[in-house]
Amino acid sequence: MQAKIVTLPGDGIGPEVIAEAVRVLEAVAARFGHTFAFEEALMGGCAIDAVGDPLPEATLAACESADAVLLGAVGGPQWSDPTAAVRPEQGLLRLRQHFDLFANLRPVRTYPALAGHAPLRADLLDGVDILFVRELTSGIYFGERHEQGDGDRAWDTLFYTVDQVERVARVAFESARRRYGKVASVDKANVLAAMRLWRRTVNQVAADYPDVELEHVLVDACTMHLLRNPARFDVILAGNMFGDILSDEASVLAGSLGMLPSASLNASRFGVYEPIHGSAPDIAGRGIANPVATILSAAMLLRHSLGLETEAAAVEAAVDAALADGLRTADLVAPGETPASTAAFGTHVIEHLVQSD
Ligand code: NAD
Ligand code: IPM
Ligand code: MN
After folding, report:
1. Within 6 Å (CB) of ligand 1, which residues are found?
2. DSSP 3-state percent helix, strand, coil across the chain (nearest 5)
3. Of 134, 163, 214, 331, which residue is most buried, by most CB within 10 angstroms?
């Protein structure tokens, strides 16, 4: 098949991890006989520096002409002045809003090869296989009032409509049907009106899925359950901010924030694919970032936007094989082990991809 993939490397480690994911996609194209055309565009802090806008019109136009978008990460201390009028992160939020990417899928699994490396006890990680379905285009990130008062007050309003909750809840229930048949919906219905609307709506959607088991979990308790007994969860459905926070927490189950991919999809399955981590300014420019989250995001791109399941599974298997060979980037090494560089890890994944049949 032929496909056009727009890449938005962004800032910090973004370009370093995108480079490896693009190499992996090129290897997929060569091995399976596809033609992928790549076009790179500016987004985030680098776009602010170049043209004064974190999401330039030319970038939006490129994304509109693409079959899918692969994004690195945006942001960094040089653009984080609280008084700045434009911020890299605004570009990301606008991109999500522009394409109505309301369903953010963030799978979390554990890797046997990393059993001894994860910060949590190995026995707690047995059987962990979670899919976060995070609402991505509403909630407190997009409420009506976002205002820095000129004095000592500021506002961000938490807002949800029934329609917004319903469509993302349907994605969660449909996913659970294809997985282990369980949805845990996370809210703060004991305090917040918008979260009571959330819970009520999720209950209404659940009536259409009698075969799926639903539980409601308050977000504060959920943070604890995720570390105490993560294997109890299948699909975790959460609003925009809670889903953001809980998925970073859950990355510890996989071993590192550098391991978790994501797909942000709209109703017509157009998608932006990105690692869940940020631009990691503390390690940027050193070639030591973990590229797994971005390579696995490329696998999700193959699966969800291009319908290439075999190719997606081949990429995932190649990552597994590289980890099984003992290859680890600096975020995963045990004391005394030598870390692999970002590029060395990418090369190793490609070797497995090319060799497998
Ligand atoms: P971060 O996710 O960038 O980094 C948190 C910690 O995890 C750091 O110690 C970092 O070194 C480590 N880490 C992250 N990804 C890694 C990888 N692939 N390999 C190895 N280690 C990795 O979060 P932060 O430092 O709080 O934020 C930095 C900037 O990134 C901020 O400007 C933030 O707004 C932005 N951000 C962007 C996105 C995005 O573009 N989607 C997501 C999250 C944060
Ligand atoms: C993420 C990030 C973004 C979010 C920021 C950078 C806007 O943390 O993709 O997880 O909060 O959604
Ligand atoms: Mn986040």
Report:
1. 13, 17, 73-76, 80, 89, 92, 257-258, 274, 277-283, 289-290, 293, 331
2. 45, 20, 35
3. 134
Single-letter amino acid code for the residue at 154: A
> Can you tell me which residue has the tokens 């631009």?
279
- The tens digit of pLDDT for each residue in 6-38 reads 999 999 999 999 999 999 999 999 999 999 999
β-bridge pairing 213-218 and 263-265: unpaired
Residue 335's pLDDT is: 85
Q: Is it true that 1-107+261-357 and 119-254 share their CATH fold?
A: yes
Asked if 49 contacts 63 with a C-beta cutoff of 8 angstroms, the reply is: no
Residue type at position 173: F
> Which ligand lies nearest to the CA atom of residue 73 in the structure?
1
Q: How far apart are CA 65 and CA 42, in angstroms?
A: 15
Neighbours of ion ligand 3 (CB under 5 A): 244
Nearest listed ligand to the Cα of residue 74: 1
Q: If pLDDT is split at 50, 70 and 90, which confidence band does 357 have?
A: low
CATH says 1-107+261-357 is which class?
alpha beta
Q: pLDDT (tens digit, 9 = 90+) per residue, 143-189?
A: 999 888 777 899 999 999 999 999 999 999 999 999 999 999 999 99
Distance from Cα 341 to the centre of ligand 3, integer Å: 24
Catalytic residues: 141, 188, 220, 244, 248
Q: Is the pLDDT of residue 219 over 90?
A: yes
DSSP 3-state of 129: strand
Pocket, ligand 2, Cβ cutoff 6 A = 75, 89, 92-93, 244, 276
Q: Where are the domains of the chain?
A: 1-107+261-357, 119-254
